[in-house]
Amino acid sequence: MTHTLRRFVRSILMPLLAALSFHSAANDQRQPTYRFCEDPWAPYTVGEISMPPKAGMAVELFEELEQRLGMTLHLRLLPWKRCLLWAKEGKYDGVMLLTRNKDRSRYLNFTVAIHQDANVVWALKDRTFERDFRTFKDFQGLRIGLTEGFNYGEAFDQAVEEYRLKVDPGPTILSNLLRLALGRIDVFFVNRVAGESAIEDRPNLRKKLTHHRGPFEAVPFFIGLSKSSPIGEEVARFDEALEDMKQDGTINRIFGADSH
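^ that's the sequence the OP posted. Answer follows.
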C-alpha cells in the first residue's frame, strides 16, 4: 500500500473509529451495569453454581427490569451464603430475590414486595405424627431439616430458643428432601413450589413425600439492593418499575396469581 493510499484509508477510518468509540462510551454511560446474585432456587432461578442462571421466574423479572430501567443487569448463581456476603461487601450490587429480616436490612435496601409464599412442612408420606403442626411447639422432639442461610422468620427463630427445637441444616433443598427420604430428618421446611421443583425429575422420590400446611404465614419476597453499591440509592426507580409491572399484569404473568 502506498503512502498516499495509507493516508487516504487512515483519513476515512480514524473518524469512523472515533465515532464508534464515542457511541460506545455514550451507550455505556446510558446503560450502567450492575451485578446481581442468587443461588440455584427453582423455579425462581435454574442453573449451576458460578454460572448465569438458565431460566426461572426471577430471571424473567430481571430481563423485564433491564428493559424498563435502561440498565445492564448481569446475573450469576452463587452459594447462598456467599451471595449474601458479597452483596454485603459490595462485590455484588444486589440479590435477585429474598425475604427480609433485621440482619439483611443492615446491608440491603429492599424494593416493594414482588411475590409472596409460605413454607410448608415436608414429611414422609407413610409417616404419621400425633400432632397437627399448628404451632412451632408441635415440632418439639423432631429433627427439623432447614436450608443453610435461609430466613425462616423471627417467630421460628424465637421458637427454636424457647422450645429448644432440634434443627439440622443442609446445603440445598434437594439434599434436605433426600435426607428426609432416608429418615435422617423427620420434617423439612420449604415452600411448596420450590420443593416440587427440586424433585420434579425424581418421581420415585416425589412418591415418598408429602407436605402439611404448618404454622408458617406467607411472607413477601423482595429485590435486595446493596447499600455498599451505587444501586442502593436506586430503590425508587426499581419500585416505580415494579409497580408498573403489577398494574399491567407482568408480575402476575411471571409469578402467578399469588403475587402482589
